[in-house]
Design a protein that fits this description.
By secondary structure, the protein is α/β, with parallel strands linked by helices. The protein has a domain of 254 residues: TIM Barrel, CATH 3.20.20. The chain has 14 helices and 13 strands. Helix 1 runs parallel beside helix 4 and helix 13 packs across helix 14. The two termini are 19 Å apart.
Length: 363
């Protein structure tokens, strides 16, 4: 499928639950989404007061996990959580290491840059551009997009990279803003988009954002419905842009996560069992008690609660939905730990968004 506004761009931190969720899709379904894959952040060992992994331990498995779980198709690769001045043990920069491995296996991986990417990082990106000639992904924040100096800033970075706009995939990353009131936010965002220089000249144009809560600790036990403002916003912007004959953006989100990375000391927290389940314009969060004291068997009752509601899509909808039904019916040996439920929720979410985008554009 050609890259246009009918595709879906999920931003994924590529931890175990997310990359296994992606691996469950067949090649045909993978034609309908292009992941923006982030090298995950390095954890912190609170007990020993040090980073959890060396740079080599963090970087070396990454390319293989992209290839094994996504494949060779088009994807965006981002390294937002590492110090770009750091080198691996053998003196190789992480950007070179990752893209050399992906290139060797013929993966169509495109590097991601920012308006404030430093000299060292951009020099590494230039090397990738010269070898691959596939262009770059440019991740622009909403604050940067609203700047009066935007055109000047874009000109500077394109000159540094010796690249034209038609070689750049533009991703307007609005993060997790305050969408309320939605009418006012949409009006503001449309103004910002219209003022982006030469909007029709960029290779592609996507909007990435989410209203998923920073923590589900604020959610009560049981079933709660939360609005998906980013999807509601997107549909209205497309409608208005169609009428105005403006370029239509591709939809992107952070799947079932919040973009902010929180350092968590798991010795001190008691995470709750929860199913993050995407529905038409909202999320259905089915939340249980903390798993340390009440274990994972409670997931069976959470699955039963979801299946008996009007929100369940049916076991044939996705791998995640089939697992939910099997868990409810006792067909799974064990309900599974927290990363498994991130896999289940992410898999259902991606399938749901692909379906919703398809239905939206044929209606």
């Amino acid at each position: 499928m050609q890259f246009d506004h009918r595709l879906y761009i999920p931003c994924l931190r590529w931890k175990q639950g997310e990359y296994i969720a992606v691996s469950k899709f067949n090649d045909e379904t993978k034609k309908y989404f292009i992941p923006l894959i982030e090298l995950p952040e390095n954890g912190w060992d609170f007990e020993n007061k040090t980073i959890a992994k060396t740079l080599d331990e963090l970087v070396k498995p990454f390319a293989k996990r992209v290839l094994n779980n996504w494949g060779k198709g088009l994807c965006f690769i981002d390294l937002p959580y590492i110090d770009s001045s750091m080198l691996m043990h053998d003196g190789i920069h992480p950007v070179s290491f990752i893209f050399d491995e992906l290139r060797e296996k013929d993966c169509l991986a495109i590097p991601t840059i920012y308006l404030n990417s430093n000299r060292v990082y951009l020099e590494e990106i230039i090397k990738v551009l010269e070898k691959d000639k596939n262009g770059v992904c440019f991740r622009l924040s909403i604050e940067q997009a609203a700047s009066q100096n935007l055109k000047k800033d874009i000109d500077i970075i394109t000159q540094k990279l010796n690249i034209k706009l038609n070689e750049i995939h533009l991703v307007l990353d609005i993060g997790a803003p305050n969408f309320v009131p939605l009418d006012g936010f949409i009006k503001l965002l449309k103004t910002i988009i219209i003022n982006i220089p030469d909007l029709d000249k960029w290779r592609t144009f996507s909007i990435l954002g989410t209203s998923f809560p920073e923590t589900i600790g604020i959610i009560k036990t049981g079933m709660e419905i939360l609005p998906r403002y980013e999807w509601q916003m997107y549909k209205r912007i497309v409608k208005d842009f169609k009428e105005a004959k403006l370029r239509l953006p591709t939809f992107g989100d952070y799947a079932i996560s919040h973009p902010k990375v929180l350092p968590i000391d798991f010795r001190l927290v008691k995470p709750a069992a929860a199913i993050r389940y995407t529905i038409d314009n909202e999320w259905c969060i089915v939340k249980g008690k903390n798993v340390r004291e009440f274990g994972f068997e409670q997931y069976r009752d959470l699955c039963k609660m979801l299946i008996s509601s009007k929100y369940y899509s049916g076991s044939s909808f996705s791998f995640g939905d089939e697992y939910i039904e099997n868990c409810a019916n006792g067909k799974t040996k064990k309900p599974g730990h927290l990363p498994i439920w991130r896999k289940i929720g992410t898999n259902h979410h991606i399938q749901k968004i692909i379906t919703d985008i398809s239905n939206f554009y044929v209606s």
